[in-house]
Amino acid sequence: MKAMVLPQITDLAQNSRPLNLVDLPTPVPDDQEILVKVSACGVCHTELDEIEGRTSPASFPIILGHQIIGRVEQMGREATKFQLGDRVGIGWIHWACGTCNFCRDGKENLCAQFQATGQDADGGYAEYTTVSEDFAYPIPESLTDGEAAPLLCAGAIGYRSLRLTGIEDGDTLGLLGFGASAHLVLKMVRHQYPESKVFVFSRNQAEREFAEELGAFWTGNFGEETPEKLMRAIDTTPVWKPIVDCLKNLERGGRLVINAIRKESVDQEELLRIDYARDLWLEKEIKSVANVARLDIADFLPLAAKIPIKPEHQEYELAEANQALMELKQGKIRGAKVLRIA
Ligand SMILES: [Zn+2]
Ligand SMILES: [Zn+2]
After folding, report:
1. Distance between Cα 99 and ligand 2 center (Å)
2. What's the CA-to-centroid distance between 293 and ligand 2, angstroms?
3. pLDDT band, very low/low/confident/very high, at 160 (cuts 50, 70, 90)
4. 228-253 mean pLDDT
5. Which one of 38, 89, 151, 171 has the minimum C-beta count within 10 Å?
6. How many of the other CB atoms lie within 10 Å of CB of 267?
7. What's the whole-number mean pLDDT along residues 149-157?
8. Which ligand is closest in space to the CA of residue 93?
């Protein structure tokens, strides 16, 4: 099968072609696994963190990609949940132990043995991939492959982030950064919390206009003061300055959720600007969101089909994965990026 593999960690400032197109043997599913013929795979900011080593793959070479749509091509001897030809999705959660306290409590995203697709196991930048049948999801018919792929990470983790903010209808919500995940969150909020005003921060004029088209109440650059305090906020930027700048806009008792697997260290000194009295006192909270649980994906997919949330996306050939990644790195984003594989 054809696959785009990452041979080693590299610096994208020096190397704009981190992945190599290679031919590999098609993987064989274990007893409880299914073999999936991949038709689309979303491109996620986390891939940049993997390539540059902020969150390193477990071994090399590795096939990245954790927003996978495809059809069941072959089943392991004990796999019974799907039928040949079923359309399924695979997200960031590739496997969790199922027996630890976190797993039994539905917090399998925090399992110490958590395995991530495209990091601990080969992912979807390839013609085929395998996964345990317990970690694959049916895809609602009304969504195309290209629309469904970004829902598996950008959408599902956006859904989890929004849930973790504790938002109630009418609460003001700030979105720091307006990439693939944030634009889906805005669509979700417009549907589920119609009384909530959404305030979008982006340094990019095109993204701010896009946010306004989608119904943002206010848009501005990082560092600007919002006309109303923010009860809830979600940060999807790779750096620290937007967070520090936003704390002064946070309402008393407000909560900011950081949706990033790692932060870049380029502007870490910004953290020294935090003024406790202005930025944190009066019960302001900062919380991170880690990974996804299966329920996030399983709940979110039908919700997305119902609203409907059909992600704005651009499609690329498998062999163009490097170009898609570099455009993501450079912030050339309108919606999501998706590799079309078959
Ligand atoms: Zn992702
Ligand atoms: Zn566990």
Report:
1. 5
2. 11
3. very high
4. 96
5. 171
6. 14
7. 94
8. 1
In terms of DSSP bridges, do strands 137-138 and 87-90 run parallel, antiparallel, or are they unpaired?
A: antiparallel
Q: Indicate which ligand has the atom closest to the C-alpha of 67.
A: 1
DSSP notation for 226-270:
PSS-EEEEEE--SSSHHHHHHHTTEEEEEEEEE--SS--STTGGG
How sure is the predictor about 342, in pLDDT bands with cuts at 50, 70 and 90? confident
Q: Residue 284 contacts by C-beta under 8 Å, 6 or more apart in sequence?
A: 247, 250, 252, 253, 254, 255, 256
How would residue 193 be classed by pLDDT, with cut points 50, 70 and 90? very high
DSSP label of 126: B
Proximal ligand: closest to the CA of 149: 1
Residue 23: CB atoms within 10 A of its CB come to 8
Structure tokens given for 155: 């959408």
Q: What is the mean pLDDT of residues 223-251?
A: 96
- Is the model's pLDDT at 332 over the cut of 80? no
Least distant ligand from the CA of 336: 1
* pLDDT score for 333: 64
Q: Give strand pairing partners of 256.
A: 233, 286
